[in-house]
Amino acid sequence: MTKKNDKLEIPSDIQKLSFEEGLLELEKIITQLEDGRVTLDESIDIYTRGSQLRVHCESKLKSAKEKIEKIIPLEDGSIESESVEID
C-alpha cells in the first residue's frame, strides 16, 4: 500500500521507516548522487526514492511538531499543558 503526499506515492517500505532511518537512507542517496558513480537510469531511480524519503521525513517532523506541548505548573501544585506554536 502506498500513501500519496505532494503528488508523490510513498512506498510502504518507506512508510515503515522511523525519521532517523529515513534520514540515514536519504544521506546515503545524496552521497551516491554526489559521487557520480551511477548511471543516468540509476540516478533517476535513486533521485525518485530520495524524493519519497524527503516527503516521508517532512511528514514525520510535521507530526512530531504537532504533538509538542508546553507543560505549565499551576499555583495549586497541579500541572496543565497547552500546545506550543513552533515556527
Structure write-up:
- By secondary structure, this protein is of the alpha+beta class.
- It has one domain.
- It contains three helices and four strands.
- It has helices spanning 12-15, 19-35, 40-67, and strands at residues 3-5, 8-10, 69-73, 79-83.
- The protein has a two-stranded antiparallel ribbon with strand order 1-2. A two-stranded antiparallel sheet has the order 3-4.
- Helix 2 (19-35) runs antiparallel to helix 3.
- It is elongated and about 65 Å long.
- The model has no long low-confidence stretch (mean pLDDT 88).
Summary, kept brief:
The chain has 87 residues and is an alpha+beta fold.
Throw out a few tags for this protein:
single chain, 87 residues, alpha+beta, two-stranded antiparallel ribbon, two-stranded antiparallel sheet, 4 strands, 18% strand, elongated
The number of helical segments is: 3
Largest sheet: 2 strands, antiparallel
Low-pLDDT segments, ≥5 res: none
Distance between the termini: 32 Å
User: How many domains comprise the coordinates?
Assistant: 1
The strand line-up of the biggest sheet is 1-2
Proportion of residues in extended strands: 15-25%
